[in-house]
C-alpha cells in the first residue's frame, strides 16, 4: 500500500498562547508577535465579523452592537491574535492611536481594513490611505487586506463593479505616493455567508508558523492519497490555517464549513479529549456529496485542529489508507503547531 512520510524535524512546537476562541481585553500596548489588525470607520462591521467568527454569534444578533470602545483581542489556535480596534472617527481622538507606527512593525503582522460598501466609500478610502502611509513607513511589506463589507443584497454585477472601482482607486493613490502595491488584497464580505471566514483564512495563513512546510506536507498527503483538496481547519472558528497549493474554489470551502457545523456534536464529545500519544487522534469519516462527485473525509488532530479531505467516492472509501496517511500528517503537524 502507499505510505505517507512523517518528517521528524519539521521545527519545534511553539508555546501555546491560549486556547482557540479566547477573548480578552488587550492589556497595555503589548501585541502578540503574530497579529492581524482589524481597522475601519465606525459602523463598518469589523466587530460583527469577529463576533460571528470567534463567538459563534448569529449575524442578525450583531447588527445592533454598541461601537467598539477599546482594542479587543481574539485568538486562533496557531498563536495568532486578531485585534479589533475602535472605529476611526478622527485620528487624534482614537483611544489607541492607529498612527502609532510600532503596531505595524514585524514580519508576522497583517492589516485588515473594513469598508462599508453601502456607506461613504470615499471617507473610508481617505482613512485607509492615512493608515497605509503610517504602516508602510515602518513596514513596506505589510499585507494590506481590504474587506469590502455588507455586500449582501447586491447583485453579482454590482459587487464586481464596486470591487474593481475600489481596487483601482487604491492602486492609483498608492502609485501617486510610491507605496508598495504588491501586498494589497481586496475581498468581498458579508456576515451572512462564509465569505468572512474564507477572507480571514486567506489573511492568516501567511502568519501561520512554517506555512511553507505545512503546505508541503499537505501537498504530499494529497498526491500520495490521490485527494483533490485538503484543508487544515481551526475547529472553533472554521478558519483554515493551511491548505495544499491547488486552487481553492468557494463551493469547496462552503461545503467544508457546513460539514464541520454538522459535526458540532462530535466536537462537543471531544472537548475533554487530550491526546496522550501521537497516534491518539479522533477519526471521523463523513460522506458529504459535493456536486454529486466528491466526498469529505475528516480526521480530528486535537479538539482545536482537524484535517478535512476532499476526493472522489472511490478514494474517500479507502479508509485504511487515509487513516494511515492522516496519522503520519498529524505527527508532522504537531511538530509545527501548538495543538
Give a verbal description of the structure:
It is a single chain. Helix 5 packs antiparallel against helix 9. Helix 3 links the parallel strand 6 and strand 7. It contains nine helices and twelve strands. The longest helix is centred in the middle third of the chain and has 21 residues. Helix content is 33%, strand content 19%. With 339 residues, the chain is α/β, with parallel strands linked by helices. The N terminus is likely disordered.
Topology:
Layout: E1 23-25, E2 35-40, H1 46-55, E3 72-75, E4 81-84, E5 109-116, H2 121-138, E6 144-149, H3 156-176, E7 184-188, H4 195-204, H5 211-225, E8 229-234, E9 239-243, H6 250-262, H7 264-269, E10 282-284, E11 295-300, E12 305-311, H8 313-316, H9 319-334
Parallel strand pairs: 2-4, 2-5, 5-6, 6-7
Antiparallel strand pairs: 1-3, 3-4, 8-9, 8-12, 10-11, 11-12
Instruction: Count the DSSP helices.
Output: 9
Query: SSE order in H/E notation?
Result: EEHEEEHEHEHHEEHHEEEHH
Helix content: 25-40%
Structural class: alpha/beta
Mean pLDDT: 83
Oligomeric status of the shown chains? single chain
- Give a quick account of the main beta sheet: strands, pairing sense, barrel closure: 7 strands, mixed
Q: Using the CA coordinates, give the radius of gyration.
A: 20 Å
Count the beta strands: 12
* Separation, N- and C-terminal Cα atoms: 29 Å
Measured by DSSP, the beta-strand proportion falls in 15-25%
Which runs of at least 5 residues are low in confidence (pLDDT < 50)?
A: 1-28
User: Looking across the biggest beta sheet, what order are the strands in?
Assistant: 1-3-4-2-5-6-7
**Outline, from the CA principal axes?**
globular
Amino acid at each position: 500500500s502507499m505510505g505517507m512520510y512523517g518528517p521528524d524535524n519539521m521545527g519545534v512546537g511553539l508555546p501555546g498562547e491560549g486556547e482557540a476562541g479566547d477573548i480578552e481585553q488587550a492589556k497595555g500596548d503589548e501585541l502578540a508577535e503574530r497579529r492581524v489588525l482589524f481597522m475601519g470607520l465606525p459602523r463598518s462591521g469589523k466587530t460583527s465579523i469577529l463576533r460571528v467568527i470567534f463567538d459563534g454569534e448569529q449575524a442578525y444578533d450583531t447588527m445592533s452592537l454598541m461601537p467598539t470602545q477599546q482594542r479587543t483581542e481574539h485568538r486562533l489556535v496557531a498563536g495568532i491574535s486578531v485585534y479589533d480596534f475602535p472605529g476611526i472617527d478622527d485620528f487624534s481622538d482614537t483611544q489607541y492611536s492607529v498612527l502609532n507606527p510600532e503596531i505595524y512593525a514585524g514580519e508576522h503582522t497583517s492589516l485588515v481594513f473594513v469598508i462599508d460598501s453601502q456607506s461613504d466609500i470615499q471617507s473610508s478610502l481617505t482613512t485607509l490611505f492615512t493608515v497605509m502611509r503610517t504602516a508602510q513607513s515602518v513596514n513596506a511589506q505589510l499585507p494590506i487586506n481590504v474587506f469590502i463589507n455588507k455586500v449582501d443584497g447586491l447583485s453579482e454585477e454590482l459587487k464586481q463593479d464596486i470591487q474593481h472601482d475600489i481596487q483601482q482607486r487604491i492602486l492609483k493613490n498608492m502609485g501617486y505616493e510610491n507605496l508598495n502595491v504588491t501586498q494589497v488584497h481586496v475581498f468581498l464580505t458579508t456576515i451572512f455567508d462564509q465569505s468572512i471566514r474564507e477572507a480571514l483564512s486567506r489573511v492568516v495563513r501567511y502568519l501561520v508558523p512554517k506555512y511553507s512546510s505545512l503546505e508541503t506536507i499537505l501537498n504530499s498527503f494529497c498526491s500520495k492519497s490521490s485527494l483533490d483538496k485538503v484543508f487544515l481547519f481551526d475547529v472553533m472558528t472554521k478558519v483554515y490555517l493551511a491548505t495544499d497549493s491547488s486552487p481553492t474554489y468557494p463551493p469547496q470551502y462552503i461545503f467544508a464549513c457546513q460539514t464541520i457545523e454538522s459535526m458540532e456534536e462530535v466536537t462537543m464529545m471531544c472537548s475533554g479529549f487530550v491526546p496522550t500519544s501521537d497516534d491518539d487522534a479522533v477519526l471521523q469519516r463523513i460522506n458529504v456529496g459535493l456536486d454529486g462527485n466528491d466526498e469529505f473525509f475528516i480526521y480530528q488532530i486535537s479538539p482545536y485542529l482537524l484535517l478535512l479531505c476532499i476526493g472522489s467516492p472511490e478514494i474517500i472509501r479507502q479508509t485504511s489508507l487515509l487513516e494511515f496517511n492522516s496519522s503520519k500528517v498529524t505527527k508532522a503537524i504537531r511538530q509545527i503547531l501548538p495543538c
